[in-house]
Amino acid sequence: MMYLGLKEMAHEKLRYALLTGVMLLIALVVFILAGLANGLSQGNRLAVDQWHADNVYLNQQANKSIAGSQLTTDVTKSVTADKLAPMNIASTVLRRTGTNKKINVALIGTTKDAFLIPKLLHGRKPTKTNEIIVSQDLWDRGMKLGDKIKLGQLTQTQTVVGSYGHNMYSITPTIYTDLATVAKIQQGNLRPNQALPIAAVVTAGDSKLKNSSNLQKLSMPDFINHLPGYTAEQTTLNAMIYFLFTMSLAIIGIFMYVLVLQKQALFGVLKVEGIGTGYILASVVTQAIIMSTIGVVVGLGLTTLFGAFAPTNMPFALDFPRLIIDAILLVLAATVGALLSGRTIARINPVAAIN
What we know:
- With about 350 residues, the protein is an alpha+beta fold.
- The chain has eleven helices and 13 strands.
- The strands form two sheets. Strands 3-4-10-6-8-7 form a six-stranded mixed β-barrel. The protein has a two-stranded antiparallel ribbon with strand order 2-11.
- It starts with a helix and ends with a helix.
- Belongs to the ABC-4 integral membrane protein family. HrtB subfamily.
């Protein structure tokens, strides 16, 4: 069966090369979308993943969204945990002193000894007011130890005292600082002895509420799924990928169906010579598998090449286990599309086809 399919493909090179090219384009779009979906996912949640936390406590009126959660540091007394850290987050703009260049950043505030703080690559952790540490994404843009920067509308300058690895939140680089700095970004000047505002209490290990309060406990997967825009973004991109699987099935199915109609006389002769429907169908399926496999393999290679040269500001990240699964699904879709021609092949009347 493979011999029959290969011989025909060798004879009709242009026809089968065109369909292989179509499969390559479909595979390329699927893999690129998968890379973008994974890149956007990492860009939204990487900072959260690097907390290595188990649970997050939000205001129970916040509908599981950190953007709507408003608490104060007093609520930490209501939670017991192996590791516990209050956390606040704000989107703001970073300006290096002496330049007019502005960079959008996610400012994460916590205590100076919090387990949330990433492992440093350079410098030290903040120990004083107006000290910050920055992610590798900002370090790569020329930021260095001792740089003076301004955040948002704050008049005080912040000093860069350390840096950590690649870290993103909502597709923006992150900065870690104290809770007071984030509070000033959000509210302006603070009153003396004011309980600092926070958005969440993050815990690792076993944790529980001491008493009834307005807190709601979320697991990390649940918390991540409710990050602003995260679920809608991933659902949209994955829906596009699944649609492309369906499209590849339809393209192969239609192409093979047309070929079968064109080759009714040939298949009629084969049936007269005693070759069964199953053998003929197997040769058609073999052709579909070969074309889709070539298209998928070349598509994987081109996608890997694209990932190596993609712009650094593009949220693109390859997840090879997922790409392999997508590749297998594309080949399976092409195989199913080819199998749809089985009924047409079975109904070919040798006498009518020859005449």
